[in-house]
Amino acid sequence: MEGNKTEPLKNKMMVVLGTSILPEFKFFFADSVKSAVQGLLQEIDEEISNWQKAENKGKVNKAYARGYISSLTRMKDLIRKWFADVF
Fold this sequence. Notes:
The chain is mainly alpha-helical. It has one domain. 55% of the residues lie in helices and 9% in strands. The protein has two helices and two strands; from the N terminus they run ββαα. It has helices at 30-56, 62-82; strands at 14-17, 24-27. The protein has a two-stranded antiparallel ribbon with strand order 1-2.
């Protein structure tokens, strides 16, 4: 991972060839997982910001926007819970 650039996990899987008992072992480096999770959280933040702007300008139904924003915020909380060791 270069600097603070976030990247998805696509094409980041590593494979170690082993023995007949375990012919191959697939894994991701922690930095790759951290980058992908941070990128996901950034995209959610951008989506929240876009919905807040649309709500403030009256472009969307306020109740719908608030529900959507609440759901996105909950998703961020769940991602942080399940990937707590990444940070």
